[in-house]
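FIELD: query
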Amino acid sequence: MHVGCIYRHDAFYADSASGEVRSKYLVVLALPPGADVVFRVLTSRYANLRPDGCFHGMPYPGFALGVLGGELTKPTWVDLREQDDYDADVFRGRLAKGTIASIMQLAPQVLRAVTACAAGAAGTTRRQARYIQDQMASVSS
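FIELD: result
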């Protein structure tokens, strides 16, 4: 696991209408020692309602990443709504099984901007903000 890495999770949630298991892309924002993975999901939904860069407003707080390429061929946002941390042991196990796969690493300058935006978002807990800020301090240019 790496901070700033985008992962594809092939079984992130079950579609409420069909029950079908759906995938989601995740970005890791912090890996605090002895704690769980602080992450946020990525979305391309409602791209036309989202301004560039960091946005803390309603109804869709997020950070615009643009079109990243590879598997991410649409304008993509980091969804900054509240998200529980991911159990680190479960995350590692799913990585080992291939249910979660690394697809790309954010550039350091983009990662700094995303983490600064996420740390200040209303959906980020104080604990998560502290972990993210600690992680930001260790990101090199």
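FIELD: remark
The beta strands are 5-14, 21-30, 38-43, 54-55, 62-66, 76-79, 100-105.
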